[in-house]
Amino acid sequence: MSPAGVAQPGGLSHTALLYDRDDELLQAAVPFLREGVAGGDTTLLSVSDREQPLILDALGDTTGLTVVPPWPPGAAFKTLRDNHQLISEGSDHAGGAIRILGTVPSTQEAVPWGGWVRYETAINQVYASLPVSLLCPYDRRVTPDRVLEDVARTHPFFVDAMDGPVSNSRFVEPISFLDDLAERDVDPIEAEPPTLELVDQLPGTSRRSVAALAEGTELDRPTIETLALAVGEVVTNAVVYGRAPVVLRAWALPDRIVVSVLDHGSGPDDPFVGMVPLFTAPSGGLGLHVAYQTCSLVTMSRTDSDFTVHLTMRRPITE
Amino acid sequence: MEPDATTAPDPGGFSLDIDEGDDAVTVTAHGEIDLDTSVAFAEALAECTAARRVDIDLADVAYMDSAGLRALLIARAEAEQRGGRLRVVNASSIVSRLLQIAGVTDVFDGGS
Lengths: 319, 112
Known about the structure:
- The complex is a heterodimer.
- By secondary structure, chain A is of the alpha/beta class.
- Chain A has helices spanning 22-38, 51-59, 76-94, 110-126, 145-154, 174-185, 203-214, 221-241, 286-294; strands at 13-19, 42-46, 65-67, 98-102, 132-139, 157-160, 164-167, 196-199, 247-253, 256-263, 297-302, 307-314.
- The two termini of chain A are 38 Å apart.
- By secondary structure, chain B is an alpha/beta fold.
- Chain B has helices at 38-48, 66-81, 93-102; strands at residues 15-20, 25-33, 53-64, 85-91.
- Chain B has a four-stranded mixed sheet, covered by helices on one side.
- Classes of the chains: A alpha/beta, B alpha/beta.
- The A-B interface holds A 78, 81-82, 85, 202-204, 222, 225-226, 229, 232-233, 236, 239-240, 277, 279-280, 282, 284, 286-287, 289-290, 293-294 and B 12, 32, 34-36, 63, 65-67, 69-70, 73-74, 77, 94, 97-98, 101-104.
C-alpha cells in the first residue's frame, strides 16, 4: 500500500485517517512519518496525548521527526496560520515538502469545533498551492457523528485500513461548504430582539458600546477587551469596504456575547480572506484575522443586498 | 521633518512626538490608533524610515487596531529595505496583545 495522503509534487494532499482500532492508526501513520523523514521532508507530529505514545513507540527511531504538543481546542486559526508559516518557510528555504500528522480536537463541544471545521475546509483553499501532506486522524470510537459528517465534507481523500487512500466522493468544495457553515452556525439568539443596536456609528463608539454591554456577562476583562478589538476591526471593515448603513446588533447572554455587523455591500470577494493574513497588503484581511484569532466563532453571511459578519465570544475554553 | 516636531492632538486624543536623536529617531505615540488616526501614524512612520534606527514607543497608546499594526509592518519593511532598523521599544498592554494575536511579536522584538 502506498503511504497515505502523500502530496503530489508541489501540491497539497489532505487526507482523513478514520480508525476504529489503534493498529489501524499505526498502519497508516507509521509509514507516513517514516517515509517523510527518509525523503527529507519536514515531518511534524501533533496528535492527542493518547495517540502520541502509541505512534512514537511504533516508530522506534524518531530521528528527524518534530514532535509538538497537541493543538489547543481554542486555537484552530492560530494553528492554521502557524502551520501556513511553517510550510511556506520550509518550502522556501529547503525547497522540500512538509508532512503533518495532526489530530484536531474533535471531541469537544460545538463551539470549538466551529473553528476546527473551518480549519479543515480552509486547508483545501489556503494551502492549495503548498507542498504539504496533511494526514488527519479521527478515532471513530470517540468522535461525534456530526463531526464525522463534517470530516467527510472537508477531506478530498480518506484512508482506512482496508482500502488505503481513496478519493472521497462526499467532499464539498470549500467555498460552498463555508456557505453551508454560515447557515448552520449563526446563533439562534439573532432571531430575538437585540440588546444593543447601533446604526452608522464609528468603530470606537461601537467597540466601547459592546464592551460596556459585555460587562454584564460572565466574560472576564481580557476577553471583553479582545472582543472590543474584534468589533472595532469588523466595523472598520464595514465602514471602509462596505456600504452604509452599517448596522451593529449585539445580544448579551450570561455565557456569551453575540455581535452582528451588517453593511449593504457584497462583502469580500474571497470568503477565506483573513484566515491567513497578508500582513502588509491594504486588503490583506488583517482586521478579520484579528477577529478569527480572538473570537470563539466568526461566521460571514450574505444576501442579495447585504453582508454580515457574526461574532460570538464565550468564556475562554479551559483545557 | 523638523526636529522634535509634535503633531497637534486630534479630536480622538491621538498625538505623536518625534525626537531625532544622534543615534535614532524615536516616535512616541499617544492615544488611540484606529480608523481615524492610523493614516497620520503611517505618514509619520513613513517619514522616519530613512533613519538608520527608528524606535517606536507605544507605551501610552490606549488602543491600536490592525490599521496601526499594518502601518508598523509596512514601515519596518521599508526601513529594512533602506538598510535601517525599526523596532517597538515600549508597548502598552493592548498593543502587546494585538502583536501577540497577530503572531508578530517576534517581528518587533528589537534587541539592541
